[in-house]
Design a protein that fits this description.
mainly alpha, globular, 3 helices
Length: 66
């Protein structure tokens, strides 16, 4: 079970912090719509290219305990 969780975490972090087309699709189709819905902001106000990745990285690590 631990190995499966480890792979899942690696895949998720690669989707969030990667630089591939798959990462772009993940941001555009899943993360940004969820953020817009949760924080009640317009889609045009958010772009994944505007994200400060260092801040996001430390927030993810802190909140998940990784």
């Amino acid at each position: 079970m631990d190995q499966k969780i480890s792979y899942w975490i690696q895949d998720f972090l690669n989707l969030v912090f990667g630089g591939s087309e798959e990462t772009d699709n993940f941001w555009d189709k899943i993360l940004i719509p969820e953020v817009c819905s949760y924080y009640k902001v317009e889609r045009s106000e958010i772009s994944h290219k505007d994200i400060i990745y260092n801040a996001l990285y430390f927030a993810v690590m802190e909140l998940t305990g990784l």
